[in-house]
């Protein structure tokens, strides 16, 4: 860093790492634009387009003049539609005043953390964990307490691991099921057992990031912690349009929390973004009320891709990987490649050099796992949000590349 940058950029901004997953997506986009033949397993976004009725609802709203400021947490119809969805699909007993709609699940999470975390508070999270939790907690002055998990357990933490991590400073636990980056999820009994531990601690709020809730495979069931009576008054549930409705660019997410927390989040949102774009709110209502079939169709495609991915990765020489259960990621251990040399003469020493060499030599983009909190250098993340032919192509390129390591 040069002196000028040192003096003009705040310590807070300087300390934050840019989102590595968005950086890889941008790099793949740029390489493709230059004419390179790249298979991108990097992007954390569905390759489908947003369902037509959702797009039409937004266009109609714009044409009808819905282009002005709207209430900070969202128009009443949209908050009611979210509350209705959470009651009907997630068994969460909630009212519209417990809902706030924000610019993506990401900003919902940011507001939730800003609303409840004071400097010095501890936030427990199982790791490996999604890239953005740590910067968000640190921007609030909080300290992360990791609960490390292993591939052998499917990257799932046990209730006693949470119990052991709790201290008098613990203010929140972040749970992300199904998980990015691991592609695994907690079954309902595991959620109940974890909540049994948390419910006896008055000061602890659970932040349950359920952005991948609709994308679960093999007949698995997602249980929302806030549906448990002991947790309903101490859980912030996060969700949004991005993943289930193939709407990452719309930036529409929401949170459901006790009304006092939603009020605090609203106050913060009023000073930061005011609200989401007004015309996305009727589109959110349409998505939640009338697009279940489209979501099921996309989920079915992801389920087929998950099976294909599992099968193709299982034949890569030396690579091990828990089977995907939800979201659209696999998180294989590639450490058997470390210490070896690629056909292009590169030494593979960690997930970063693995990903770099694979991209340069085979045209396959993956995300090094060490960008995810608590992962260590052994894993890479592959997203299967791309068509089956590309999955086949990318997996055979990777298998061939691995087979030529010496
Ligand atoms: C685990 C997790 N939570 C939250 C988000 C935020 O999604 P969005 O802001 O697009 O709603 C993402 C996006 O990648 C994610 O992977």
Give a written overview of the molecule.
This protein is α/β, with parallel strands linked by helices and 406 residues long. It has 2 domains: 3-49 and 294-403, Aspartate Aminotransferase, domain 1, CATH 3.90.1150; 52-289, Type I PLP-dependent aspartate aminotransferase-like (Major domain) (Aspartate Aminotransferase, domain 2), CATH 3.40.640. The protein contains 14 helices and 14 strands. It has helices spanning 3-8, 11-15, 20-33, 52-63, 76-90, 104-116, 133-139, 159-165, 188-199, 259-272, 280-290, 292-314, 351-362, 388-403; strands at 39-40, 99-102, 122-127, 143-148, 170-176, 205-209, 235-240, 253-256, 329-330, 340-341, 347-348, 364-365, 367-368, 380-383. The strands form 4 sheets. A 7-stranded mixed β-sheet has the order 2-8-7-6-5-3-4, sandwiched between helices. Helix 9 (188-199) links the parallel strand 5 and strand 6. Helix 4 runs antiparallel to helix 11, helix 6 (104-116) crosses helix 10 (259-272) and helix 8 runs parallel beside helix 9 (188-199). The chain is globular. Pyridoxal-5'-phosphate binds at residues 44, 104-106, 130, 176, 180, 209, 211, 240, 242, 248, 253.
